[in-house]
Amino acid sequence: MSEILTVDLHPVFRSDRDIDQVLRSALFRAAAQKVGLLEIIPGKGSGTLKRRVLAKLGQPSLKKLYRRVESDPGNEGRILVHF
Questions:
Q1: What is the mean predicted confidence (pLDDT) over 57-72?
Q2: Rounded distance, CA 17 to CA 44, Å?
Q3: Domains of the chain
Q4: Which strands sit side by side in the sheet containing 37-41, from one edge to the other?
Q5: I need a surface site. Which of 1, 9, 30, 31 has the fewest CB within 10 A?
């Protein structure tokens, strides 16, 4: 359970639908594979994408899949989802 799954959102940052699909599939894949940590990389930028990702992760249907979410203290362009 020490495996880490990484998802980079840079290739899909312009499309809200693609962002939602990538996040959902990554969460479901990480939960199914019993991954210990999902690393989401929205990038630093203005923080808009990071806020969108955190709002998406806060939805009740997705919140059931993981234990906690945190912003990486050493890198503000990275979100860590613990399972």
A1: 94
A2: 21
A3: 4-82 (3.30.1370.110)
A4: 4-8, 37-41, 79-82, 68-71
A5: 1
